[in-house]
Amino acid sequence: MIGKVCPRGQDVAGLIRYLYGPGRREEHTDPHIIAGYRNPADLEPPLRASGSRDFRRLTGLLRLPHDALGKWGYAKPVWHCSMRAAPEDRMLSDAEWARIAGDVMDRTGLCPRGDQDDAVRWIAIRHGPDHIHLVAMLARQDRTRPRVHNERYRVRDACLAAEERYGLRSTAPADRTAARRPSRAETGKAARHGRGEPPRLTLRRHVSTAAASAASTTEFFARLDQAGVLVRLRYSTRTPGQVTGYAVALPGDTTKAGEPVWYGGGKLAADLTWPKLCQRWTRPARPDSPLSAAEADAMWEYAARTAADATARIRYCTATGNPAAAADAASAASDALHVAAAALGSRALRQAADAYDRAARQPWGRVPAPTPAGNQLRHAARIISAYAYLTGDRALTPVVLLVRLAALAEAVAELRESQQRAAQAAAALRAARHLRTASRPAPPARPPGRPATATTSPPPKPARPRPATAAGLAQLSFPVPPGTRPPVPGRPGPGEPPPARRPPPPRARGPTR
Q1: Which strands make up the sheet holding 120-126, listed edge to edge?
Q2: What is the mean pLDDT of residues 34-51?
C-alpha cells in the first residue's frame, strides 16, 4: 500500500468538488465519505433536486476551526493524503478503509484516538475500488494549530501496519534515503517541451558527477560550467565572500516570467547540500598532465583493483555484523559510477549510476566517516575523471572495471539486505544489472544466409532468481508462521497446484552433411 501526502492547499471546497466529480479521465465512481471526525452519514453532502451535490454545509463544518483562528491559522491549511492498494490486492471494504484512515490520523497526530472533540476536522472519501483520499483542515477545534512534523513517515508506518493486518502486498519501509522525485507538474512540463526527463533528474546527475570529479569548490563550479549548468551562489551576510549555498538551473527551463527554475542542492538530494559537499573536498587533486597509453591501462587496472578491494571490505563488514564500517565505501561507489559513466559516455553506466544513487545514501543524508576503502574509490574516480577531462578519449572499454563495479554493487545490496533496507538493496541490484549488461560483449553477427545450428547451447539459467524489487526484498524480511517456508519466485505456494510443464521448444534444424 502506498500513501502520498500532497502539497498543502487553500481551497478545501474545490478539492472536495474534484473528489466527488468524475475525475480527469472519468475514473471516479460512487464517491462517498467512509470516515471522518464524526459519523460519516452526518457528513455526506446531500443531493439537490437537479442531482448535483450541495457541499456548502460540509465545507463550512471543515473550515469552522480555521476561521476561528483568524490570522493565527496556517496560510495553506488544507491537508490532503491519498492511499492506494496494489492492483493484485483484494478489494477492501468501507469499514476496513475507514480503519486505515483512522490509523493514519492517529499516527500523524492530527486526530489522535480519544481526542476527536479537540483535534482537527477531517473526512475520508472513497471514489474508487482501490484507493481513498483523506482531507483535513490544519486547525484544531480547541483553537490551536496542530503540530505537523514528519507526517509522511507516519503515513508510511500506517501503510505497513495495514499490509500486515489485511494481508496486502508488502512494500519496503521508509529509510529516509530516497531523493526527492519530480512532481507531476515537472514531469508534464518536461513532456510538453520534449525533454527526455525532468530537469531535476538531469541536474542531480550533473551535480553528483561534478562533486565526484572535483577536489575543491573552484573545480566543482568549473565542472558545472563545463556541463552547461547555470549556477547561483548564496553568500554569507556576516563574512562577505564566503559561499554558504548554491542553486542550479538548466538553460531553457524557465518560469512563465522567463526566469530560470532554480534548484538548491538540498532539493536535489540530501547529500548534495553545500555543507555536506564541502566535507568531500579534502582529497588530493587530480594530476595536471595527460597519461600515456601504458598509464591509461594502469589507471583502469588500478580502478578495477580498488573496486575489488572495496567489494571484499564491504562483504567482510557484512559477514562480521559491522555494517557501519562499510558505509563510506558504499557511498564512494556512487562517485566511481557517476565518473565512469561521464568518462565513457555509456548510457548503461548512466542508468547504473542513477539506479545506485539511493543505495549509497545514509538515513537523514548523513555523511559517513572516511575509511581507506572509500578514500581509494574516490581517488580512483578522480583519476578517471582527470583522464577523460585531459584527453577526451572515450574509446576504451574497461570490461574488467565494469565487472568489478557490478560485484561491488551486489556486495552493497547484500549489505543493505542485512540492514533491513529493502529499497536500497533493490537500487543496488538494479545498478548491478545495468553494469552486467554494459560489461557483456555484443553477440557476434551471424553471416547472412547461415541458419542457426542445433548444436548451439542455450545460455545457462540462474539457479535461483534474486528479487530485484523493494517489495520482493521486503517480503523476505517479514516473519512467516512456524512450519512454513517463504515463497520463492517461480515456485507454487502451500496448497497451490504445481505449474503445468511446458513442452520443450522445437530444435532448429541445420543443414545435413
Answers
A1: 2-5, 78-84, 131-140, 120-126, 32-36
A2: 90
Q: Which residues contact 407 (CB under 8 A, 6 or more apart)?
A: 307, 308, 311, 432
Lowest pLDDT segment from 38-42, 230-234, 438-442: 438-442
State the Cα–Cα distance between residues 148 and 138, nearest whole angstrom: 8
| Distance of alpha carbon 32 from the chain centroid | 33
Residues in CB range of 414: below 8 A, 6 or more apart = 314, 315, 318, 425
DSSP letter for each residue of 357-369: GGGGPPGGGPPPP
Lowest mean pLDDT of 63-77, 135-149, 274-288, 419-433, name the range: 274-288
For residues 23 and 28, what is the distance between their CA atoms, to the nearest angstrom?
5
- Residue 172 and residue 470: Cα distance in Å, rounded? 5
Please give the residue that has the higher pLDDT: either 434 or 134: 134
Q: Which residues pair with 140 in a beta bridge?
A: 120
The count of other CB atoms within 10 Å of the CB of residue 345 is 11
Q: Which cell goes with 77?
A: 491549511
Q: What is the CA radius of gyration of the chain?
A: 28
Sign for the CA dihedral angle at 394, 395, 401, 402 comes to positive
Q: What is the pLDDT of residue 285?
A: 42
Q: What are the two backbone dihedrals, phi and then psi, of residue 117, each rounded to the nearest 5 degrees?
A: -75, -20
List the grid coordinates of 91: 478489494
| pLDDT score, position 482 | 43
Amino acid 123: pLDDT? 94
Task: Name all contacts of 140-144 with Cβ < 8 Å and 24+ positions apart.
Answer: 140/65, 141/65, 141/117, 142/118, 143/65, 143/68, 143/69
pLDDT band of residue 472 (cuts 50, 70, 90) is low
Residues 19/31, Cβ–Cβ less than 8 Å: yes
Q: How many residues does the chain have?
A: 513
Tell me the CA end-to-end span of the chain in Å, nearest whole number: 61
Of 414, 419, 320, 314, nearest in space to 371 by CA? 314
Q: Which residues fall within 8 angstroms of residue 452, CB to CB, at 6 or more apart? A: 446, 508, 510
User: Do the beta carbons of residue 86 and residue 168 sit within 8 Å?
Assistant: yes
> For 103-117, 193-207, 396-410, 436-450, which range has the lowest pLDDT when averaged over its residues?
436-450
Residue environment code for 8-20, b if the CB has 16+ CB neighbours within 10 A, otherwise e: eeeebeebbebbb
